[in-house]
Amino acid sequence: MCVLQKLLVTIDGPAGAGKTTVSKRLSDRLGYRYIDTGALYRGIAYEAKRRGVRHDDGEALGALCKSMDLRFVRNENGTRLLSGQNDITDQIRTPEMSMLASAVSATAIVRHYLLDVQRAMGREKGAVFEGRDMGTVVFPDADIKFFLDASPQTRAFRRYKELEGKTAQTLEDIERDIRQRDENDSTRDLAPLKPAHDAIRLDSTDFSIDDVVDLMLDYITGVQL
Ligand code: DC
User: Fold this and answer.
1) What is the distance between the alpha carbons of residues 149 and 136, in angstroms, rounded to a whole number?
2) Which has the closest alpha carbon to 150: 23, 17, 15?
3) Which residues span the domain enclosing 76?
4) Is 175 inside any structural domain?
5) pTM here?
6) Nearest protein Cα to ligand 1, atom 20
7) Any domain includes 193
8) How far is the CA of 51 from the centre of ligand 1 (A)?
9) Interval 178-190: pLDDT, tens
10) Distance between CA 164 and CA 15 in Å, rounded?
């Protein structure tokens, strides 16, 4: 019997490129764990707001990180993010938390703290890690790296559909936020958003999620053989 080796797969890319849906489906098809690292930055942003910590106060952010206890758990509602005993999965998905997560993610103290957290989560293979710097900084030796992109208009439209009924934001508001986050995430000094030199670059503008997942599975099968 041929037992396929378990891999560490990374998927980086800008907001709204389809990373989350693709990563979830891919991990289901492979029987792998799925780790949404953006949720960890959002978790810190959420606690910073709740405890009145400013995103530009490095000392207070450091103290906040030391006291953080972020964990993913799987239950009947899917994968949930816990901060201590509180399930904060839904609270971290607001437009305000998106912008605040982008702001705290530019600080050295938060990136340093989450680097260790993410590497500890990746000690066991058989996982799909989704984020901005998975292939460049956190797991430079990942078995297979993807960089998933799409046009800003397509990404904004997808976010708009996702948030429909849950936000008062218009399509124009969402596109403006996405462009602003692209700018923040790709021009920051630390671990900016960019494809790893050995990443497979895919553009999902004209492809369905299932097409992208099938394409990724083809690449993964090639690595496993
Ligand atoms: O993937 P997301 O939209 O949930 O991420 C929220 C923010 O967190 C994003 O604007 C940038 C930051 N982030 C990061 O800097 N590095 C990661 N690996 C994941 C997210």
Assistant:
1) 16
2) 17
3) 9-220
4) yes
5) 0.93
6) 38
7) yes
8) 21
9) 999 999 999 999 8
10) 17
